[in-house]
Amino acid sequence: LRLLAATSNRGKLVELRSLLSDLPIEVLSLAEVLPGAPPVVEDGATFLDNALLKVRAGALRSAMVTLAEDSGLEVDALDGRPGVRSARFAREGATDAENNEALLAALADVADDRRRARFRCVMVLLDPRSEAQPIVTEGRCEGWIGRQPRGAGGFGYDPLFVVEGYGRTMAELGEAEKNLVSHRGKAAREMRASLEALVAR
Ligand code: ITT
């Protein structure tokens, strides 16, 4: 099965390829399938809204089975922010380093026991060759926000996100370990049966 992974985020693409590597699926990137396509305006209010915007745009333009996901970090002390704005918390087009800095600044006065947070990932699969509705799965990973970045793995807020029960940041886990505990890993495993059904179709 040829699958379009409708994401412009390099870190997500690497993880999606790894998570699906034991299935007979060729994961193609937006850059490979739709070079030069304009970015999708992600103005939805929820992770699901944005994931649907991305999967529908990808499937419409490519006519391929398409997988998209919208994800982000919810910090309790910030009433769930940055949430759907995680990629642009510091500013539009921010780098991961800028976002991490902005998050540390926003939490500077928040005590250690009030820094609880979670990563969420809403994943959507759409087969434009059928009338079927998009299939939606979700994964979450609980943890808290540290005081300084630690670790060199992963991407985004990984160096600041201390995984519940691990005492290490997401960036201190290896790729396989991150996949086992991450929001994206959980959403992808929940999507497996649907992907296998499409492979068999
Ligand atoms: P696409 O929309 O093209 O997929 P994006 O980076 O804009 O790429 P999102 O709008 O879903 O994707 O924003 C997700 C942001 O949430 C991402 O840029 C990171 O800042 C953060 N994030 C999501 N998953 C993460 C993870 O596994 N580790 C660290 N940060 C993550």
UniProtKB/TrEMBL annotation:
Residue positions annotated to bind Mg(2+) are D70
- Cofactor details (free text): Binds 1 Mg(2+) ion per subunit.
Citing just one GO molecular function, the answer is:
nucleotide binding
Q: Which residues are the active-site ones?
A: D70
Entry annotated with the keyword Ribosomal protein: yes
List the record's Gene Ontology CC terms alphabetically.
cytosol; ribosome
Enzyme Commission number, as recorded: 3.6.1.66
Spell out the reaction equation it catalyses. Answer: ITP + H2O = IMP + diphosphate + H(+); XTP + H2O = XMP + diphosphate + H(+); dITP + H2O = dIMP + diphosphate + H(+)
The answer to whether UniProt assigns keyword Hydrolase to this entry is yes
Q: Which Pfam families match?
A: Ham1p_like (PF01725)
Provide the residue positions that the database annotates as binding substrate.
Answer: T7, S8, N9, R10, G11, K12, S71, F155, G156, Y157, D158, K178, H183, R184
Per its UniProt record, the required cofactor names are: Mg(2+)
* A single BP term in Gene Ontology: nucleotide metabolic process
Keywords noted in UniProt: Hydrolase, Magnesium, Metal-binding, Nucleotide metabolism, Nucleotide-binding, Ribonucleoprotein, Ribosomal protein
InterPro entries (UniProt xref): dITP/XTP_pyrophosphatase, ITPase-like_fam, RdgB/HAM1
Top enzyme class: hydrolase
* Family matches, as NCBIfam families: RdgB/HAM1 family non-canonical purine NTP pyrophosphatase (TIGR00042)
Q: What is its biological role?
A: Pyrophosphatase that catalyzes the hydrolysis of nucleoside triphosphates to their monophosphate derivatives, with a high preference for the non-canonical purine nucleotides XTP (xanthosine triphosphate), dITP (deoxyinosine triphosphate) and ITP. Seems to function as a house-cleaning enzyme that removes non-canonical purine nucleotides from the nucleotide pool, thus preventing their incorporation into DNA/RNA and avoiding chromosomal lesions.
Task: Give the quaternary structure.
Answer: Homodimer.
Please report which protein family the annotation says this sequence is part of.
Belongs to the HAM1 NTPase family.
Q: Which protein is depicted?
A: dITP/XTP pyrophosphatase
Source organism: Sorangium cellulosum (strain So ce56) (Polyangium cellulosum (strain So ce56))
Lineage runs: Bacteria, Pseudomonadati, Myxococcota, Polyangia, Polyangiales
What gene name does this entry carry? yggV
